[in-house]
Specification:
- The complex is a heterodimer.
- Chain A has no helices and eleven strands.
- By secondary structure, chain A is mainly beta.
- By secondary structure, chain B is mainly β.
- Helices cover 0% and strands 52% of the residues of chain B.
- Chain B is built from no helices and twelve strands.
- In chain B, the strands form three sheets. In chain B, strands 2, 5, 6, 10, 11 and 12 form a six-stranded mixed β-sheet that branches. Chain B has a four-stranded antiparallel β-sheet with strand order 3-9-8-7, with no helix packed on it. A two-stranded antiparallel sheet of chain B has the order 1-4.
- Chain B starts with a strand and ends with a strand.
- Chains A and B meet through strand 4, strand 5, strand 9 and strand 10 of A and strand 6 and strand 11 of B.
Amino acid sequence: DAGVTQSPTHLIKTRGQHVTLRCSPISGHKSVSWYQQVLGQGPQFIFQYYEKEERGRGNFPDRFSARQFPNYSSELNVNALLLGDSALYLCASSLWGDEQYFGPGTRLTVT
Amino acid sequence: AQSVAQPEDQVNVAEGNPLTVKCTYSVSGNPYLFWYVQYPNRGLQFLLKYITGDNLVKGSYGFEAEFNKSQTSFHLKKPSALVSDSALYFCAVRYRRNNAGNMLTFGGGTRLMVKP
């Protein structure tokens, strides 16, 4: 079975631009969570979606938004990019309340 | 609020020797505890979890972890380290409560270096 997939693998954006990151969960998993991992730190929780509804939000500004589609895939959107948004963005899928399985991540560089 | 501390930035061990990577946590109520491993330029791989029951949890690749409620610790252990175990290890906690979702709080990570 395919694991969690994320696209793109890498991307470079300029300050002020907008970015969309995509995630496809493991088949059968209805919950998707997003994490930001800044270099040298542990992942920080951004959002969780379950059955297309937001079920949790971390301490991130409103520039960050997400949604989940009927096929349970998800998008993370970040507006007005700042240099500090440069990080590895990780998507994780799970059955509700179970351990999370992470994708390989999207490396975002903001210049 | 829940938090996780990994007091060692790096742990060095010789191949074949036992290893321990330390983790302490703070959470209201009973926790779910996890260990993940991250290899360079990769996402996190699930190693093991503690939910309830036996305090010694066995996981993937020969790793195990011991839950100690009185010390609020969940140390990762392996009896005999391999060079291929060299990676970044993260401890994480989730608050066990209905509808708390899957939000994980991670520690800062510990780099394990196993030397031949």
